[in-house]
Amino acid sequence: MDPGHDDALALLVALASLKVKGVTAVCGNQTVDKTARNARRVLDLAHYEEISVHQGADRPLFRPLVTAAHVHGSSGLDGYHFHLRDREKTIPADAQQWLECEFTQEPGDIAWIATGPLTNVAAFLMGHREFVPRIKKLTVMGGALNHGNITPYAEFNFYVDPDAAHWVLAQGIPIQLVGLDVTHKALLAPDALERFVSFGSEIGLMLHDLFAFYFKHEPNAVPQGVPVHDVLAVGAMVHPEFFAWRRVNLTVERCDEKYRGQMTVVSESARAATQVAVDVDVARFFEWMWAMLANGF
Ligand code: BDR
Ligand code: CA
C-alpha cells in the first residue's frame, strides 16, 4: 500500500476484518519513505505494533515516480498530527526479502491485497515465478473501465506503474480488480466525520482529521461524499458477494503516453483469471465497513 488517506482507512478495516500478516509499502501517493512511515504511524496508533512494515519500491519498474501530493498532501497523510514517532525511524527497506520469507515459511494459500501501484507485487513475482501458483486471491485497487482520475483514460495506480499492472494481470493469478467503476459509486458521506469522532478513541480523532483534509482535496469529492477507493478492495477480499463481477482478459497501455495506464478489455471469458468489479451494493458495503470500524476501534 501507499498510505494515503484511503489506504489508511483500508488498513484499519483490514485489521478489524482479517488477520493481517504485514504491510509492504510502495511509492505512489508519496515517496516510499513517507508511505512506509504513514503505515507505521497508523498501525502504532491503532495498537497493532506487532504488525511489521517493510519499505518496498522507491520508483515504478521502468519510469520516474509520479505522486498524488495534490490529494494526500506533502506527507502523504496530511491533516492529522501524529505524536508517536519513535519506531518509524527504523523501518527496514526489505519488502522483497520479507515477502520471500513469508511465501517460504507459510505453507498455505496466499491472499494479498494491493492498494497502491503494483510495483512491489510485480518485482517480487518476476523474481519468484514459482510462487505465482500459490496466490489464490489477489485483490487490487486499480484501473477503470470507463473514466480515469489522473487522466481522462487512466486510474492513478495503473498510471503510476502501468508496466507492473500489465505484467501482473497477465500471469493468470486469480485477481479481483476493484477500479473506479465501483469506487466512484461508493461515496463516504460527510457525516462520517462525526461518526469517526463518536468512536471516542484516538483513531476516531485521527480519521476525523485525515478525512476532513481528504474531503477538501480528493478531486472527485462531491457534496454527497468522497470515494474511499482502497477500502473497497478490502471489502472485495472479505465480501466478494457485495460486488457484481465480469471475467475478462485485460491489457494496460504502456507505450502511448497519452493513454498511459488505460485499461482495455481484450475479451470476456468464463476462463479468465481476472474478475473486474462492475457494480457494488453500496448500502451493504458501508454497513459492513462501519460495523468493522465500530468493533475494532
Ligand atoms: C487510488 O489512487 C490513490 O490516490 C488512492 O490511494 C487509491 O489507491 C485511486 O485512484
Ligand atoms: Ca492507495
TrEMBL record:
Q: Which GO terms describe its molecular function?
A: purine nucleosidase activity
Quick one: a GO cellular component term?
Answer: cytosol
- One Gene Ontology biological process: purine nucleoside catabolic process
Query: Key word Iron-sulfur present in the record?
Result: no
Q: Any idea which UniProt keywords this protein has?
A: Glycosidase, Hydrolase
**Pfam families (alphabetical):** IU_nuc_hydro (PF01156)
Location of the Inosine/uridine-preferring nucleoside hydrolase domain: 1-287
Q: Which InterPro entries match?
A: Inosine/uridine_hydrolase_dom, IUNH, Ribo_hydro-like
Q: What is this protein called?
A: Ribosylpyrimidine nucleosidase
- Organism of this sequence: Sulfobacillus benefaciens
